[in-house]
Structure formats: structure tokens, C-alpha cells
Write a structure and sequence with these properties.
Blueprint: E1 7-15, E2 21-24, E3 32-34, E4 38-41, E5 47-49, E6 54-64, E7 69-75, H1 80-83, H2 87-101, H3 111-121, E8 125-129
Antiparallel strand pairs: 1-6, 1-8, 2-6, 3-4, 4-5, 6-7
Length: about 130
């Protein structure tokens, strides 16, 4: 593909990782660095309390058109219709499920969610703006 913007019609081959949300800077959308009580954006310097961190969707996919394979990452609220809720609410749901199941990684996606995402995307054809 060239250096400009293009549309790519491709089928999803696989989901590349199981973390579908990330804590995002409200100023620049970069991933926040979290500790037990505070967050910090390494890109723009924005800081705050962890309880105030906002989450954003990040879905990494392996896709194929008729000739090539591509790694594509889809960000943001365009994924709200597929998940049925905002990234913020999904993250709360994940944390609640992990708390109930005793999972120590509070950001790990439950297996049932991973299966649902795979069912929704793998084998389906989408048009991606790249």
C-alpha cells in the first residue's frame, strides 16, 4: 500500500491479543502508565488519580484481502456498536468479573469475552480505513 489513505476490504483471520481496552490519556489518547493510585501519560505529561482514568477500545487484528495479510489495529468508539457498550463500561465489567473469579490480572479479558469477540469478527469481512 502507498503512503496515502485508502480503504481496505479484508476478512479477519485472527484476533492478535485479548486486551480489548486500554487506559487512554484524555488529551492525546496515548496509553497511560498506571500505578496503584495515580496515572501518568508519558507522551503529554497528563496526570491524575487511577479512579479517573478513561478507557478506550483497541482491537488488534490479522486480516487478509485477496492478495496479502495485514496487521490492523482498530481504536476508539467505532467499536461501541460491536461490543454494545463503551470501552469504559466494558472495562468495569471485566474488572468486576475478574474480581468475582479471583483473577489477579484486573485487566485480563475473561475467556467468554474472548470467544464472543472471535465469533463476532473472525471470518467476517470489513472495510478498514488505513
Amino acid at each position: 500500500m502507498g503512503g496515502g489513505r485508502a480503504l481496505l476490504a479484508a476478512s479477519v483471520i485472527s484476533i492478535q491479543n485479548s486486551c480489548f481496552t486500554y487506559p487512554a490519556c484524555q488529551n492525546c489518547c496515548s496509553r497511560l502508565s498506571l500505578d496503584s493510585r495515580r496515572f501518568n501519560c508519558l507522551k503529554c505529561g497528563h496526570t491524575g488519580e487511577v479512579k479517573d482514568a478513561r478507557y478506550r477500545y483497541r482491537l488488534s487484528l490479522k486480516v487478509a484481502d485477496t492478495n496479502e495479510l495485514f496487521d490492523i489495529t482498530v481504536f476508539g468508539s467505532c467499536l461501541d456498536p460491536f461490543f454494545g457498550i463503551t470501552a469504559e463500561n466494558l472495562q468495569r465489567y471485566i474488572q468486576d468479573l475478574n474480581h468475582l473469579s479471583g483473577e489477579t490480572n484486573k485487566d485480563a479479558s475473561p475467556g467468554v469475552l474472548i470467544q464472543a469477540v472471535e465469533t463476532c469478527f473472525i471470518g467476517k469481512r470489513f472495510i478498514f480505513g488505513v
